[in-house]
Amino acid sequence: MTPRNERVLIITHWDGDGLTSAAIVLKKYPDAKLVIARPHNLPDKLSSTLKNPPDRIYILDVSPSYPNARELVRKLAKKTKIDIIDHHPNYPRSPSHLFTWSSSKSVSQLTSAKVFQDRYLAELGAQCDYLIDVPKYREEAELFTFALRHKITDDDFKIRVAKLLARGLRINQIPDVIKEGHEGKKKFEQVLKTAKKAGVQVTPTFSAIYLKETHGFGGLIAEKLSRRNKVAMVMSEAWDEKGKVVFAIRRWDVPIDLGKVVGKVCRELGGEGGGHPYAAGGGVPSKRREEFIRLIAESIKGR
Is pLDDT at 2 greater than 60 in this prediction? Predict the structure, then answer.
């Protein structure tokens, strides 16, 4: 049983940082329930707990950036213990006592410091989020990243992997991650090749790429292409929300806070978005895709 027989719910993001953070919490609370969330469906995950909340809820690497998510957090905080561990800027962190936050660290590092110390998981998560560069973790982090993106729609896979990491296995000891990682890397190279052909140079320093499907590699593709275009954005139809275009945008050697830029533009167009100065993402209504590209281009013009 968990400490003091607590009923614990872990709500975490699906990427390497989120899952390593969840694995750290599972080390302390091995019987905890684990669910995967994205910012847009975090309110649904929270509202389902209102009638019979657990004793403690951990929200890891998923920003309660939507107003209804923050309202649900406030309601639940009156009934149970809530710990929000995050590193995303540009949204109100209130009530502040619920948050453990730093934009300079990965959520895995913050979780290791606060909940249960595990250097391997803390540094692996940070490596996956490009916040540190530890040579001995590079190959594992890359393999993990490709595997998770190759299985972008399979939350059960992600939960299984987090539980195996919590049991002490390393990424290179999990056959399914190794298999999916290698397959994911091959798929990434195919999608990258298509993206290079589909890119449109909107301005001298900004390119936009629209793909019907990115197979979960939008962020990785944008990161690769930003190295030659300064700012690159990859867009595709959302696989889990009809009528919505999702995007990933990355910058290279340009002094722009992408999180603030996309957050402002998304709000203007009835979408949602945010992130870090160097990397951001979100979604807007499909019918406003071209307008979105134009407003992003105007926002970063001359940078």
Answer: no
